[in-house]
Amino acid sequence: MMVKINLKNNVVTFFLACLMGLFLQTSNAKEIDILNNYQNKNISEQCRNALDYYLDYPVLKGEYVRVLEFCKSTAKKLDIDGYSTNPILSDYKSMNGVNSRPRDSIHQGIDIIGSKNQPIIAITDGKVLETANEDCWGPTLIVDHGKTFDGKNMIAIYGHVGEFLVEEGDYVQRGEIIAKLPEKVKFRCMARVRHLHLQIGQQYCKKEEKDNWGCKYFIKDFYRSLDPNLYWANGPNNVSCFDKNIEYKPGYITYPLECKKNSLLSNNLTK
Question: Strand pairing of 88-90 and 110-113?
Fold first, then answer.
């Protein structure tokens, strides 16, 4: 009799465990669906914001539709637990520009789309070397961020910005707002898409060296720059949001645009 009762209890326990597992699996699937839907909606909205150049040029509607579809299908969904931020549209070594057109050479940085006047923050501590207004790039900031964790020089280009909030010679801290994205997209190298171009080289081009062979765009190793994705604070290819409550190790970088917590997601998807 006791054996039958134990067997019955075991069957009931097993059945309840299966139901609980199914519930948790369904719950997790719903949360993943919520996250995916949120990311898709968020990327679509950010693509439209980055392409507001076209609002002033109705004659370019066909190009706008093409670039918008490219943006929505290509923009990199960043896997950052509980956070949302601006997507990368053209990654390191990409052969397509932010406007979907083929590049003449392999991309040496990352292009992050954004909204007008959106703050740009320092990827780590450093010293401002130059605030330049280049004919094709537009306003561009050059910052010496010291050494990477593996001992390489880290000279960062923050390209296609709109407003400088620091001056040459200033020392900046990780997470400090150093510039803003432009209100209007005006310069040719922006390709009609508002974005930040972040590139990390090792050899700075001094002003008096500009326009010499091999020293045209801010750094001497412009066409053989470091891959920013290798230096995220959370590890290679693991984009890291800046958090003022975290003490970061030198030589690692955090995202140059602010991240926001996803309040609509459940606690196990947020920090």
Answer: antiparallel
Q: Which residues contact 128 (CB under 8 A, 6 or more apart)?
A: 141, 142, 143, 166, 167, 168, 169, 170, 171, 172, 178
The C-alpha atoms of residue 243 and residue 179 are separated, in whole angstroms, by 19
Q: Structural domains in the chain?
A: 45-261 (2.70.70.10)
pLDDT tens figures, 219-245: 999 999 999 999 999 999 999 999 999
Query: What DSSP line would sit under 79-127, residue for residue?
Result: --TTEE-PPEEE-TT-SB-TTSPBPSS---SEEEE--TT-EEE-SSSEE
- The Cα–Cα gap between 91 and 246 comes to 26
In a 3-state reduction of DSSP, which class is residue 153?
Answer: strand
pLDDT tens figures, 108-151? 999 999 999 999 999 999 999 999 998 899 999 999 999 999 99
Count other Cβ atoms within 10 Å, centred on residue 54: 19
Q: What six digits make up the tokens of 27?
A: 């719950």
Cβ neighbours of residue 266 under 8 Å, at least 6 residues apart? Answer: 31
CB-count exposure of residue 144 (10 Å: 0-12, 13-18, 19+) = middle
Residues 6+ apart with CB under 8 A from 193: 50, 51, 53, 67, 71, 89, 98, 99, 113, 185
Nearest to 169 by CA among 206, 126, 233, 214: 126
Dihedral class, residue 211 (left if φ above 0, else alpha if ψ from -120 to 50, else beta): left
Find, among 227, 199, 217, the residue nearest to 112 by Cα. 199
Instruction: Determine the residue type at 162.
Output: G
CA of residue 205 relative to chain centroid, distance = 25
